[in-house]
What we know:
mainly alpha
Amino acid sequence: MAALCPSEADAWGFWAHHRMNRVAAFTLPPEMIGFYKSHISYVTENAVSADKRRYAIEEEAPRHYIDIDHYGELPFNNVPREWEKAVAKFSEDTLKKHGIVQWHIYRVLHWLEDAFRKRDKDDILRLSADIGHYIADAHVPLHTTVNYDGQLTGQDGIHGLWESRLPELFGDDYNYFVGEASYVEQPLERIWDVVLTSHSKKDSVLRLERQLSEKFPDDKQYTYIKKGQSTVKTFSREYAKAYSDSLNGMVERRMRKAIETIGSFIFTAWVNAGQPDLEELEKDLPEDEQE
């Protein structure tokens, strides 16, 4: 495969991140949803702020993935679930080299709890957008493997195909109704389950695309599209549709699960902070900031 757009650094792609953060806000209970609806544009647009920081902050990149297969095979019982124990076993440098997404989500959850506790509106919104981004990334199979873009199997570009091209082409037809957010009793265990489930799908993601590529001639696999002022090579709609069909709804299911988890983690942070009255935060809001 040639170098393709979108790039791996774009994670789910702006479209998918925007959609997941936006829909997740509507899973929240009545005590919260009014506040988030008032700031839905912020939470939606800033769903990709974490990706933008990757270009400016060196330590940002490891927060988006974990190359869990660096440590062995499922169920990775050799990797301590708690950060401190993992650091003691592998060293912090080693962990950061291979990604820390699940531990960073747990850390952001506590930051968000603290923001709710302090009634800090700006931090609540910023961290809500951020935790949505990281949780969404953890639901991507290729965010959990050393072979994150198929570069080890001659499948360069599969990362962007799975998590950007497919949602952008077919995401408007997905079912995003996931029900209401629920309290997460053990958030660290929950996010580890997300990572392990994502990783369990990695082989299918790669195998199905490899099988498909053997059936499609090159001139049917790729096309050129306009991106801003540039013309870029990407996977054709025909090829993307065939891959989507072979995945049998996997991308949609992972997006739905991400939306449910995002809403539930935000709800959990609010509950753990004592369920502060979010309407009180709006009383001092200037009219020109209200949406």
